[in-house]
Write a structure and sequence with these properties.
There is one protein chain. It contains five helices and twelve strands. With about 230 residues, it is an alpha+beta fold. Strands 1, 2, 3, 4, 9, 11 and 12 form a seven-stranded antiparallel beta sheet that branches. Strands 8-5-10 form a three-stranded antiparallel beta sheet, with no helix packed on it. Strands 6-7 form a two-stranded antiparallel ribbon. About 40% of the residues are buried.
């Protein structure tokens, strides 16, 4: 369970890091499964380094991991008793996908009611191989994004110059650590300058007690409580 201090950190900053929620054997097996699935789908060289699966398109291991009881308990603490799972994505950096993810708020990609995502490190994530960067407190406001199309995804983004006066935090984590973050939390990643793997699984959820006007998800899965959607 999350401590009161961790809950307060999420509420104040828009994100919180929870160490060691998955062990080494779990992260290694999950990474191998995602690599196998992407190879099967011929998506391993996806230019964006991102592959999204909706709740009815997951492999069985990923399905079990995004419903891990400890995750659901922590989500209950952060967003309430009614929790819906929406989708999961593999995000991978290596010698081919070395660029940084630009600054953005996830909300611009789906809008509607608030969402929460869980960034699950399947490798050690460092400033050298592409760990997260976040702006504490940025989840309180919608920030106007620029529309950019360069073949790397992240069509809604802002440039580094827009962060000049904001308190940017670099967030290195170890494999098995997870970062819970609000969909308005401004975040980016460092570029992968050493060519080492940095694989993550990012699962997205919402409260089932709030009507969601987003049209991104046609299906969802109720993990606890009830749903008005």
């Amino acid at each position: 369970m999350l401590s009161d201090a961790q809950i307060n950190e999420y509420q104040q900053n828009g994100y919180v890091v929870v160490p060691g929620l998955f062990d080494t054997s779990e992260t290694s097996a999950w990474k191998a499964q995602l690599q196998a699935k992407l190879t099967e789908e011929k998506k391993l060289d996806e230019p964006s380094g991102v592959r999204v699966w909706m709740c009815d398109g997951m492999d069985s291991l990923t399905e079990a991991n995004v419903q891990k009881p400890q995750l659901v308990q922590m989500l209950n603490q952060l967003i309430g008793p009614d929790v819906e799972f929406l989708s999961v994505k593999a995000v991978f950096k290596n010698s081919k996908t070395s660029f940084n993810s630009p600054w953005h708020q996830d909300w611009h990609y789906w809008q509607g009611s608030p969402k929460i995502s869980i960034w699950i490190a399947l490798d050690n994530a460092t400033p050298e191989n592409g760990c997260l960067r976040l702006v504490p407190g940025s989840h309180r406001n919608v920030v106007q994004m620029d529309d950019v199309e360069d073949g790397k995804g992240f069509g809604h983004r802002i440039g580094e110059d827009a962060l000049a006066d904001l308190p940017v935090e670099t967030v290195p984590v170890s494999a098995g650590d997870v970062v819970f973050f609000h969909d308005l939390a401004l975040h980016a990643s460092c570029p992968n300058v050493n060519g080492q793997d940095r694989w993550t699984a990012i699962a997205t959820y919402r409260s089932g007690s709030e009507v969601d006007g987003s049209t991104v998800w046609e299906t969802f899965r109720v993990l606890s409580g009830e749903s008005v959607n």
